[in-house]
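Intended use. Records like the one below are meant for learning the mapping from a protein sequence to its folded structure. Do not use them to infer anything beyond what is encoded.
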Amino acid sequence: MFKRYFLLFAFVSAISGCAAQASPNVYRGSDAMRAGSAEQVTVVRVRNVTIVGDSMLSANSGVPAILSTLVGAVLGARVIGNGDGRYIAGALSGTAAGVIGQVAATHLSQRDGVEVIFRTDSGRQLVVAQGADQQFVVGEQLYLVSSGGGYRLTR
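Structure written out for the chain above:
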Protein backbone atom coordinates (compact mmCIF):
# COMPACT_ATOMS: atom_id res chain seq x y z
CA MET A 1 0.00 0.00 0.00
CA PHE A 2 2.85 2.38 0.84
CA LYS A 3 4.29 1.76 -2.63
CA ARG A 4 1.04 2.88 -4.29
CA TYR A 5 0.92 6.15 -2.32
CA PHE A 6 4.60 6.78 -2.92
CA LEU A 7 4.13 6.35 -6.68
CA LEU A 8 1.12 8.68 -6.63
CA PHE A 9 3.12 11.28 -4.69
CA ALA A 10 6.07 10.98 -7.07
CA PHE A 11 3.80 11.33 -10.12
CA VAL A 12 1.96 14.39 -8.79
CA SER A 13 5.23 16.01 -7.74
CA ALA A 14 6.77 15.38 -11.14
CA ILE A 15 3.93 16.90 -13.15
CA SER A 16 3.28 19.77 -10.76
CA GLY A 17 6.38 21.62 -11.86
CA CYS A 18 6.26 20.81 -15.55
CA ALA A 19 5.42 23.91 -17.50
CA ALA A 20 5.29 24.12 -21.25
CA GLN A 21 8.61 25.54 -22.23
CA ALA A 22 8.16 27.28 -25.54
CA SER A 23 11.32 28.02 -27.44
CA PRO A 24 11.98 30.05 -30.58
CA ASN A 25 13.33 26.78 -32.02
CA VAL A 26 10.18 24.73 -31.27
CA TYR A 27 6.87 24.98 -33.08
CA ARG A 28 3.53 23.74 -31.78
CA GLY A 29 1.73 21.23 -33.94
CA SER A 30 -1.00 23.80 -34.65
CA ASP A 31 1.63 26.20 -36.10
CA ALA A 32 3.26 23.65 -38.39
CA MET A 33 2.35 23.78 -42.08
CA ARG A 34 0.51 27.10 -41.69
CA ALA A 35 1.40 30.31 -43.46
CA GLY A 36 2.88 33.04 -41.31
CA SER A 37 4.77 36.20 -42.08
CA ALA A 38 8.37 37.29 -41.72
CA GLU A 39 9.77 40.80 -41.61
CA GLN A 40 13.40 41.84 -41.44
CA VAL A 41 14.21 43.89 -38.33
CA THR A 42 17.27 45.43 -36.64
CA VAL A 43 18.14 44.77 -32.98
CA VAL A 44 18.21 47.93 -30.85
CA ARG A 45 18.68 46.43 -27.37
CA VAL A 46 19.00 43.00 -25.77
CA ARG A 47 18.71 42.03 -22.12
CA ASN A 48 18.44 38.77 -20.21
CA VAL A 49 15.17 38.03 -18.42
CA THR A 50 13.59 35.15 -16.52
CA ILE A 51 10.46 33.61 -18.01
CA VAL A 52 8.03 32.06 -15.55
CA GLY A 53 5.49 29.45 -16.65
CA ASP A 54 1.84 30.44 -16.58
CA SER A 55 0.12 27.09 -17.07
CA MET A 56 -2.37 25.67 -14.58
CA LEU A 57 0.40 23.56 -13.03
CA SER A 58 2.87 26.44 -12.65
CA ALA A 59 3.79 27.78 -9.24
CA ASN A 60 1.75 30.95 -9.78
CA SER A 61 -1.51 29.02 -9.83
CA GLY A 62 -0.99 27.38 -6.43
CA VAL A 63 -2.12 24.01 -7.81
CA PRO A 64 1.24 22.29 -7.15
CA ALA A 65 1.12 23.32 -3.49
CA ILE A 66 -2.47 22.12 -3.08
CA LEU A 67 -1.82 18.79 -4.79
CA SER A 68 1.37 18.08 -2.89
CA THR A 69 -0.27 19.12 0.40
CA LEU A 70 -3.14 16.71 -0.15
CA VAL A 71 -0.87 13.83 -1.16
CA GLY A 72 1.52 14.54 1.72
CA ALA A 73 -1.32 14.69 4.25
CA VAL A 74 -2.80 11.40 3.05
CA LEU A 75 0.59 9.70 3.04
CA GLY A 76 1.46 11.06 6.46
CA ALA A 77 -1.83 9.99 7.99
CA ARG A 78 -1.65 6.52 6.43
CA VAL A 79 1.99 5.67 6.90
CA ILE A 80 3.41 7.53 9.89
CA GLY A 81 0.92 7.73 12.73
CA ASN A 82 -1.36 5.49 14.78
CA GLY A 83 -4.59 6.58 16.44
CA ASP A 84 -4.79 10.30 17.01
CA GLY A 85 -1.10 10.69 16.10
CA ARG A 86 -1.90 10.05 12.48
CA TYR A 87 -3.81 13.33 12.24
CA ILE A 88 -0.81 15.24 13.54
CA ALA A 89 1.47 13.30 11.21
CA GLY A 90 -0.87 14.05 8.30
CA ALA A 91 -0.96 17.75 9.10
CA LEU A 92 2.80 18.03 9.46
CA SER A 93 3.63 15.97 6.39
CA GLY A 94 0.97 17.79 4.35
CA THR A 95 2.42 21.16 5.32
CA ALA A 96 5.96 20.06 4.52
CA ALA A 97 4.90 18.51 1.20
CA GLY A 98 3.00 21.68 0.25
CA VAL A 99 6.02 23.89 0.87
CA ILE A 100 8.35 21.52 -0.96
CA GLY A 101 5.92 21.17 -3.88
CA GLN A 102 5.53 24.94 -4.25
CA VAL A 103 9.29 25.58 -4.10
CA ALA A 104 9.94 22.81 -6.63
CA ALA A 105 7.24 24.15 -8.97
CA THR A 106 8.67 27.66 -8.71
CA HIS A 107 12.13 26.50 -9.72
CA LEU A 108 10.95 24.11 -12.42
CA SER A 109 8.68 26.67 -14.10
CA GLN A 110 11.44 29.29 -14.54
CA ARG A 111 13.74 29.46 -17.53
CA ASP A 112 16.22 31.85 -19.02
CA GLY A 113 14.92 34.24 -21.62
CA VAL A 114 15.93 37.25 -23.62
CA GLU A 115 14.04 40.49 -24.24
CA VAL A 116 14.85 42.04 -27.61
CA ILE A 117 13.85 45.55 -28.64
CA PHE A 118 14.05 45.95 -32.39
CA ARG A 119 13.22 48.41 -35.16
CA THR A 120 11.24 47.51 -38.26
CA ASP A 121 12.02 48.97 -41.69
CA SER A 122 9.05 51.32 -41.23
CA GLY A 123 10.68 52.76 -38.08
CA ARG A 124 8.44 51.16 -35.44
CA GLN A 125 10.12 49.85 -32.32
CA LEU A 126 8.73 46.62 -30.87
CA VAL A 127 9.79 44.17 -28.18
CA VAL A 128 9.69 40.38 -28.03
CA ALA A 129 10.60 38.20 -25.05
CA GLN A 130 11.47 34.60 -25.85
CA GLY A 131 13.59 31.69 -24.67
CA ALA A 132 17.33 32.27 -24.66
CA ASP A 133 18.01 29.54 -27.23
CA GLN A 134 19.54 32.13 -29.55
CA GLN A 135 21.73 35.06 -28.54
CA PHE A 136 21.44 38.36 -30.41
CA VAL A 137 23.63 41.49 -30.54
CA VAL A 138 22.75 45.15 -31.09
CA GLY A 139 22.69 46.08 -34.76
CA GLU A 140 22.12 42.52 -35.95
CA GLN A 141 19.61 41.93 -38.75
CA LEU A 142 16.96 39.36 -37.75
CA TYR A 143 13.62 38.09 -38.94
CA LEU A 144 10.46 38.70 -36.95
CA VAL A 145 8.35 35.63 -37.62
CA SER A 146 4.62 35.83 -36.98
CA SER A 147 2.45 32.74 -36.73
CA GLY A 148 -0.69 31.62 -34.90
CA GLY A 149 1.38 31.06 -31.74
CA GLY A 150 2.69 34.63 -31.57
CA TYR A 151 5.96 36.26 -32.57
CA ARG A 152 9.55 35.06 -32.44
CA LEU A 153 12.89 36.36 -33.59
CA THR A 154 15.32 34.26 -35.58
CA ARG A 155 18.29 34.58 -37.88
